[in-house]
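From: lab user (bench 3)
To: helpdesk
Subject: output format question, protein + magnesium ion

Hello, I'm new to running complex predictions and I'm not sure whether the block I got back is the full result or only part of it. Here's what I submitted:
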Amino acid sequence: MAKITCPFCFETFGSDKVKFRCGNPRCKQEEDKIYNEGRDKRARAMGHVFENKAPSFLSRLTRPTHAARCDLCARESDKRLCPHCHFELSHMAGQIDDHIIAIIGGRGTGKGHYITTLVNRLEQEVGMQFNFALSMQGDETRKRFEDDYYGPLFRRKRLLQPTQSASIESSTKSPMVFRLKLQRNAVNLSFFDSAGEDMQSLDVMSTEARYICFAGGIIFLLDPLQIEAVRQQLPEDILPPRDPSAEPFYIVQRLRELYERQFRLRPTDPVKTPVGFVLSKVDALLPIIDSGSALRRTGEHFGSFNRADAQSVHTEIWNYLQSWEGGRLTNFIKANFSRYHYFGISSLGRPPSGIDKLETVSPIRVEDPFLWILHQLNLVKGMKG
Ligand SMILES: Nc1nc2c(ncn2[C@@H]2O[C@H](COP(=O)(O)OP(=O)(O)OP(=O)(O)O)[C@@H](O)[C@H]2O)c(=O)[nH]1
Ligand SMILES: [Mg+2]
Ligand SMILES: [Zn+2]
Ligand SMILES: [Zn+2]
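Helpdesk reply: Thanks, we reran it on our side. This is the complete output you should expect:
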């Protein structure tokens, strides 16, 4: 029997235990207490929830329980729910691999813009180069991605709003689920966009951002515009206000502590989850970095992860961090994480100018960290370059 781990409450259960939600608008609409409980939602009528009553022995053997008949109206429904929290599971949950990708980092480091431009790149050029097909799973994901990410940035050409803490906005705790079709197989990717606000304390992180510990890969954004040595070299009008809570060094330490707590790591055990440490907003750095910098060209991953190119970015970013932060960040990372890589990206391609509409969105290297994680998960090949 296939096991499913719910990407909302992280309980694991057999696929025969799933419940269903009736999709017939004329069937009974009822308050779903279990759904509301985990989400601090006000009562609203939703489709009737029912169990798949004793599927026949034969049908169990021949096919997984994809759909079941409603006990009230007899209409078939394929909306499968986690039995513990009533999260709507993706179609193939339990049959294809699920990977959780957590995007974390302090307030205003650029996580929201990153996810939006990454998905857009994956749907376009990168998708073509790798023969990927990306699709969204479920109405919640489609609506949220359109309303909070794609719509504002690409249709209305506006900057995104700060993400609300998961303690007041429960959707922050929910993943956006994508299906990625690769050349030979398909996987579900659950993207979690965290609120920088929730990264400020270990207790909040461990309750509101528990998914981090279940992640198969972490994209950790660092804002270079919060690094003092960088601020001194750049014109003031492109600098965001100082925010000590976005300080990368402290958030990296909290991430480490989170793993120690959750998995009882000893101080000498490294975190083994792949973590891409990603310098965001590198567009703003172009005036002060080397003219031969790798950040001025593209990653050239034509169907496989370009390791040589990634290595040159890694070394370059390591060097910058070393000279700006004096080694405390890079040394801490080296001592505490065993699979990590440095990257540099820009989602917008140029510093946004105040309240105006964005003229263009031309991302730099946003796919690099993501492709590296897929490579770490053995989903895409690497090439020496
Ligand atoms: N120069 C430059 N600025 C950027 C870029 N991406 C984001 N920003 C700026 O950073 C601000 C914050 O970006 P968000 O993506 O909302 O940051 P976040 O990490 O999601 O922040 P929280 O939701 O508060 O955790 C934006 O309003 C932009 O002003 C970029 O690629 N280049
Ligand atoms: Mg955000
Ligand atoms: Zn659940
Ligand atoms: Zn019904």
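A quick orientation on your result: The pocket of guanosine-5'-triphosphate (ligand 1) is lined by residues 105, 107-113, 159-160, 162-163, 195-196, 281, 283-284, 346-348, 351-352 (CB under 6 Å). Let us know if anything else is unclear.
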